[in-house]
Fold:
Amino acid sequence: MPLLNENKTEDEKELMMLWLKVREVVKQQFGKRPDINAILVLIGINELGVIKEKYEKEEKQDLMHIAICALFEDEGFFKFVGLDKDGWPHYETLTNIPKGKLREQEALLKKKIIQYFQVMNLI
Structure:
């Protein structure tokens, strides 16, 4: 199936192109094309502000959670409440992100990641 076929809406095509730009920016920086989870970990690291040689599996999960909270804070789903004694950010859940079809959830997450990269002037 072609990347930009006639069955896709203009919004879907634009999302795909911007998503490819995000992945390319990360690939240029780190040498390999990331998946969505790797990008969430990178956003979490950026929000945390601490770079380590290696993160444990649980830390990566926490970094992904930080990323989700940071990405959806402006939508009113989370509220930043402060840093713990180790400097990790904590958020309060104000309301749950609406459940939808997997494809819709993935598209929404990609849109928020793209916005993050745009605000950071990376794309």
About this structure: The chain is about 55% helix and 10% strand. The chain has a mean pLDDT of 92. Residues 10-119 form one domain.
